[in-house]
Amino acid sequence: MATETLVPLESNPEVMNKFLQKLGVPCNWNIVDVMGLEPELLSWVPKPVIAVTLLFPLSDAYEHHKQKEENDILSKGQEISNNLFYMKQNISNACGTVALVHGVANNTDKIQLNDGPLKKFLEEATELDANARGELFVKSESIINAHKELAQEGQTNTPSADDSVNHHFITFVHKDGILYELDGRKAFPINHGKTTPDSLLDDAAKICKEFMARDPEEVRFTVVALAASE
Predict the structure, then answer these.
(1) pLDDT tens digits, 174-186
(2) 168 an active-site residue?
């Protein structure tokens, strides 16, 4: 279970990019804002997009759906690629960092990671199961310290009025022709059906809209993408 509570990472591309670069992600891949989920707004996002991250408020509607979804999958089963990198979140408020790691870890064929904490973590975590990866992550001091440093920087630049709001980050990736939702708080990755590298952003946007539709009174949703920098 969680051993420590961190200050949450802010959903701010500038902060997220500093964090990723500290971990060894080269500057030719960047987190960018997705300003809206309609086709014309999605078309403005730089391509290629290799991961989509959603920040959303935790709610009763979400928790109810999460439980129903888990029960449905446990009864019907789902296919999960052996090539998918998934880890559990064992540390409170680290969901932003776990979401970013999920995005990078499933695209190491495209991202040439520099030597650093993330490359070391992924090399050690590759052969482990999701729970063991989560435990290894908690012990990865360089990654945790980078999170603390950047989360603190984000906090000083932004109002803290929403600190009491419980938000959560998840990431969507393409792997072997399938769109996966990666959420370290869920029991397992979620297979959302077919996608391609080119349609990842559009297909992930459809799932993000489903999250929003379950909480129609809520407006605090943010979507960012990990994309090639122009």
Answers:
(1) 999 999 999 999 9
(2) yes
